[in-house]
Amino acid sequence: MSSQSRDDGSISRECKKALIDSYSHVVSAIVDRTMDIIEGCYFKEGGLGVSTSSGNPETGDPPVGVRSAASAAAGGFRLLDGVRMLGPSLAKLCELSDSKSDDINNAGSIAASLCISIHRTSVKNTARTLENVAKAIQNTSIDSIDARVAAISSDVVRAIRLLFPFASAYKTVTKRRALPWDPKIGDDASDIDELLRFIINRLLSAFQKKVLSSDFNQTECSAMGPLFMINNCYYLQEHLGPGCVKNSVDKDEQCVLDKPWFVDKIGKIFEAEKAKYLSQWEILNMHLTAVDKKDLTYQKQSKKDGQLLTLESGRLIKTRFSGFNEDFEKTYAEHKMLPVNDQKLREILQNDVRRVFAPRYTRFFEQYSKIQFSKKNQDDYLKYPPSTI
Predict the structure, then answer these.
(1) Which residues form the Exocyst complex subunit Exo70 C-terminal domain (predicted)?
(2) Closest CA to 140 of 64, 76, 74
(3) If residue 216 lies in a helix (H) or strand (E), which one and from where to where?
């Protein structure tokens, strides 16, 4: 009903009543549809009636996963945004042209009550879906048996990208409900960063739990745990950190976590775990110690060029080369089987590994490869020239 028609006294009361009845039907349809959407989003797709750890034993529904929980939470945020627009629309639809009628006030109060009821239901259930996201991350078992990027990392990145745009809707929730990670309400509540920080911390706790699990402790390769953390932290940096802007195809919708709580924390964990990983290669430097010149004696029958060391002196160099070769082959064989799927990360680790021992090995090789320390097997000891490493 336009403003002109409402002010036009020529419209009969019967016509006004017919229009009012039509609007009432529209309002009823909108409310019914909205409540259906709320029920479908929260209780069916959101799984509010399903446990995040054991599922629903009565219906056989599986536990709610991170992806389903995040989709439901994002759906709840969308509903809250819609409810904010629905309120004024309901009020307009329920307005009557005759302000003297008692039905007008009743209609207005009904509209307000409907809006408040829908809003409260949406806030309450959206808060539950947000809690479900955190619980799903905590209860998700990381089934990966090696160091590759875990599926839960991809799920959490997707969840954060879904929730990130709804900062206003999140404030609508925290204005009225306390959350485990954000106990204050109203103006004292935090912004959506607090939710995202909580999600990341839950994910990091899941990583640590996996590293300490029997899956990794029983493996002979002690680099498995550190590399698992390296792969997953690097994945988070590349997909959520400041660098994801230049890596993203869609520039219009960016989700960038550039605050210190993310950048510094993930960066520190990455560097700490990388140091643990690189320490596995430090054992090679133990063999690259210098031999005192006074311990190097040559056989008397040797010619001036290509002098052959005595057996005892030659053994000092042989032991160092053989020890290096043995540990290099063992360490290389173990690390070669560890997955690093990101090409950029693989190159970073390869260069860092070279810096651990290659400069020292190059100097050692150049110095002692010129000496004839083995009569028959010199080439076997020198089978790894620095240029091939």
Answers:
(1) 100-389
(2) 64
(3) helix 214-217
Which candidate, 132, 131, 151, places its Cα nearest to that of 141? 151
In a domain, 312, yes or no: yes
Question: Can you tell me the distance from the alpha carbon of 315 to that of 236, in angstroms, rounded to the nearest whole number?
Answer: 50
Judge whether residue 20 has pLDDT over 80. no
b/e for 212-236, b at 16 or more Cβ within 10 A? Answer: eeebbeeeebebbbbbbbbbbbbbb
Do 360 and 285 contact (CB within 8 A), yes or no? yes
Q: Structural domain tally of the chain?
A: 2
**Tokens linked to 387:** 């240029």
d(CA 285, CA 288): 5
CB 81 within 8 A of CB 169: yes
Q: Residue length, the chain?
A: 389
SS3 135: helix
CB count in 10 Å sphere of residue 132: 25
> Helices (DSSP H) in 65-191: which residue ranges?
66-94, 102-139, 151-163, 167-174
Distance of CA 70 to the CA centre of its chain: 13
Q: Is 338 in the same domain as 209?
A: no
Query: How far is 134 from 196, CA to CA, in rounded Å?
Result: 10
Structure tokens at 378: 């010199």
Question: Domain for residue 231, yes or no?
Answer: no
244-264 mean pLDDT: 73
In the predicted structure, residue 271 carries a pLDDT above the cut 80? yes
Domain boundary, last residue among 160, 191, 215 = 215
C-alpha dihedral sign at 94, 99, 103, 104: positive
- Residue 252 domain-assigned (yes or no): no
Beta partners for 250? Answer: none
- pLDDT value at residue 58: 47
Judge contact between 119 and 87, C-beta under 8 A.
Answer: yes
**Domain boundaries, position 347:** 283-388
Tens of pLDDT, residue by residue over 86-137, are 766 666 655 543 444 555 455 556 666 777 777 888 888 899 999 999 999 9
